[in-house]
Amino acid sequence: MLDHLRRPATLLIATLLPTSLALAACGGGDDDMLEGLDAVTVSGEPGTTPNLDWKGRLKPEKAESTVVEKGDGAALKEGDVVRVDFTVANGWTHEEHFSSYDATGLSVLVTVGTEKEPQSVTDLLATGFAGQIKPGQTLGSRIAVTAGSDVVFGDYLATQAATLLASLDIGNEDGLLFVADLTALAQPAGTAQKAPGWAPAIVEKDGVPTGLDFAGAATPSGTLQVATLVKGDGPVVRSGQTILASYLGQVWKGKKPFDESYSTGRGLEAVVGGQAASVVKGWSQGLVGLPVGSRVILQIPPKLGYGNKAQGDIPAKSTLYFVVDILDAADPEPTPEPTPAATETPAETPSDTASPSPSD
């Protein structure tokens, strides 16, 4: 049911880039290349942007993983869903292709011991290190993985995902460095608060939401309601940002969720607020202004949800209830400055095109 939340197309691999782009190799001869972490020294505190001191060009070989720094958090178990911050750098050019530490980068969710088909940019890049996160490793740890791009992305080089890699200047014979911090389990982090009387109770299994219980909950008010169950300790979500969230959705007095992400270990990447919003209005209006780390219950009236149209298992005019964990937030990519030729308008020819109305 992610489609009902209008997952942003720009994050889907299949629609991200035109097929005309080609995947090219950056690498050259092996004479001046080094193996694994002989090519680079990784330093810096976990949770901060890693410092990379390159000694030479990285040879593209099979994956090799090293724990750069062991964290003092809890040991991971099979099936744990971990939020990971990471950087991907090219061992040939020594340029960073992606960093979730940047203001525009999102972290990713990795399920320990489970492979997932990538559905977003971060999912695809995370295949470089996800298999190296093992039971017994501890939260707060930083790991470094070196591997050839053909080893990491070999299963995707014959798909349209190859065009994404080309756009990031990742060749098909490049040595790649992944630095990944096991930041936290994918769950709210902050101060617990008492649920208001109108809110349904969350049904859980092993601490993970599986549904909503409407016994004793108030009849829908017809307005947007937001119940903060955990007030996060992170930065406040701003309009136009992309959030990483776990969620569960159920209609008023529904017997089961119509959609949820908790059981899959996948995070939803969604733009909230602004003209580029990719979710129903109730999400944008309810989540903007809340701090990262929060868990909330949203009561969304039909006018801020799907209105008079049925959506799959969701009847028309339904009041929607969502449990949402806000796990991360990122700024939009900067808009390129227009060229002077594109912005100049002759003084004697005023524009007769009305400006678009601002987003709600």
Give an overview in words:
With 360 residues, this protein is mostly beta strands. The chain has two domains: 184 residues, Roll (Chitinase A, domain 3), CATH 3.10.50.40; 141 residues, Chitinase A, domain 3. Helices cover 9% and strands 30% of the residues. It contains six helices and 19 strands. Strand 15 and strand 16 form a beta hairpin. It catalyses: [protein]-peptidylproline (omega=180) = [protein]-peptidylproline (omega=0).
Total beta strands: 19
Query: What fraction, in percent, of the residue positions are helical?
Result: under 10%
Q: Helix and strand succession?
A: HEEEEEEEEHEHHEEEEEEEEHEEH
Q: Any idea what the CATH architecture of the largest domain is?
A: Roll
Largest sheet: 7 strands, antiparallel
Fill in the CATH topology of the largest domain: Chitinase A, domain 3
Q: How many structurally independent domains?
A: 2
EC number: 5.2.1.8
Domain PPIase FKBP-type: 240-330
GO molecular function: peptidyl-prolyl cis-trans isomerase activity
Catalytic activity: [protein]-peptidylproline (omega=180) = [protein]-peptidylproline (omega=0)
